Amino acid sequence: MNQTFLLGIDIGTQGAKAVVIDDMGHVVSSANVSYSFESPQPGWCEQSPSLWWESVISCLHSLWKNGVDPTAIRAIGTTGQMHSLVILDERKQPIRPAILWNDGRTLKECSEMEEIVGSDYLFNTTRNPILPGFTAPKLLWLKKNEPEHYSRIKKVLMPKDYIVYELTGEFSADVTDASGTCLLNVPDREWAWDVIDELGFSRDWFPPVSESQEVVGSLSETAAQITGLPIGIPVIAGAGDNAAAALGNGIIMEGTGSISIGTSGTVFIPLKELPDLARDQASTLHLFCHCLPGMWHAMGTTLSAGMSLRWLRDAFEKQNYDDLLEGVDQVEAGAGGLLFLPYLNGERSPLNNPAAKGVFFGLSYEHHRKSMARAVIEGVCYSLRDVLDMMEKAEIEVADWTVTGGAIKNPIWTKVLADVFQQHLHVHEEREGPAYGASILAGLGNGVWKAVADLPMLDQKANRIEFNRENQPVYDAQFARYQSIAQAMNPLF
């Protein structure tokens, strides 16, 4: 009996991951490779695209060593970090390291975009505020600061699209990732060519935009030789990491939502139609295309979620997170009044301040490693509740929440998050985040499943994390303090 396997590839900020699933949605095997980003100047974040491709190759060979038969792979889906700018020259080679989503150098260029295009027209077309992490202002920054690189641009890609190119030799984009460039007409799900023209960018830079589950190419002979995969298997357009992770967790209907805690943290809510919000109502709310045709989603992002805990681990020179978090569950809710603002590399939602900095507030002699670790976890959860508060003000509400990302591996994270949100949370422990969603897109694109309603994983039960109502007064009070301190300090940053 022939096996049917699907491959999902995720280009994350801290590492690449590859996941193989079967046609029942069960994870057959997975592999990952860790890496880091460079920070040439404070607030800057860059990575080499070649690092991603080398890591993907390493992941795939690990899968084959683990016993996965590459000839059983029927299709490939890709996903990855959004907004990060990859520019290629006429030889189809990266011109410089990619400027990442969490890079904060482009605040001036955001204002320039609004001046050139018109702030109201730009918002009404893209349905998003222009934020420093997005892709378009990075191109303006290059034009002013690295004209020798800017003049050589022949193609503009997102990280996962660069991997699609390495796999197929084809240039592509999908509606989810393109939504985060601030160059997409989000209601029409097509490039905003008038905005691109106004900004002086070449139309030839931008590949055709596809729906996420469309086939955009097939595995080339060169890629087959390098990866060990069969030549000619279809490669799907794929999706940005948050949309892919949401699909993998069944977050496809209004009234459901996901909270992701990875390098960054996001709150994600599917929408059947785009809300009619004025520019001042939208604040830093993202309104992007979902990876399912005819669906959109609302999203807000805190930039340093899991990255904050990684920073604390390194600061205390701990070998792993278990050592850092030993005894943290014995610290009472509220961390003895200690608060942490997780703005280690600026903040997006809702502050929109790339100059923001991390803060411990309320330190005293009684505090120690355990209370600081708990305060970091709680601070990230407050920042996510701050995002939810922004969404509720826009009258976007959810009754059923799922949590995903690296945080689900640690019960302290999920328990604190449930208590801070005062919501029961669902967790799918088998699902491997965005890479799992990318493998589902591969199956939809290749006809393994005809429609979303046919997905067998939607029937799989999730674990339920109960919240503790007794902790509500403490967390409500701490969250109010958190918001007050963040608002007071924002202009001081």
Helices and strands in order:
Blueprint: E1 5-11, E2 15-22, E3 27-34, E4 46-47, H1 49-65, E5 73-80, E6 86-88, E7 98-99, H2 107-117, H3 119-126, H4 136-145, H5 147-150, E8 155-157, H6 159-168, E9 173-174, H7 175-179, E10 184-185, E11 190-191, H8 193-198, E12 209-210, E13 215-218, H9 221-227, E14 234-236, E15 239-240, H10 241-248, E16 256-261, E17 265-271, H11 279-282, E18 286-289, E19 296-302, H12 306-315, H13 321-325, E20 339-341, E21 359-361, H14 369-393, E22 400-404, H15 411-421, E23 425-427, H16 434-445, E24 463-465, H17 472-489
Parallel strand pairs: 1-5, 5-15, 9-12, 16-22, 22-23
Antiparallel strand pairs: 1-2, 2-3, 4-7, 6-8, 10-11, 13-14, 16-17, 17-19, 18-19, 20-21, 23-24
Domain Carbohydrate kinase FGGY N-terminal: 6-248
Domain Carbohydrate kinase FGGY C-terminal: 258-443
Site (Important for activity): 10
Structural write-up:
The protein folds into 2 domains: 5-243, Nucleotidyltransferase, domain 5, CATH 3.30.420.40; 250-427 and 461-493, ATPase, nucleotide binding domain (Nucleotidyltransferase, domain 5), CATH 3.30.420.40. It has 493 residues and is an alpha+beta fold. The protein is globular. The N and C termini lie far apart (62 Å). The relative contact order is 0.14. A hairpin with a 3-residue loop joins strand 16 and strand 17. It is built from 17 helices and 24 strands. The model has no long low-confidence stretch (mean pLDDT 94). The strands form 8 sheets. The protein has a 7-stranded mixed sheet. Catalyzes the phosphorylation of D-xylulose to D-xylulose 5-phosphate.
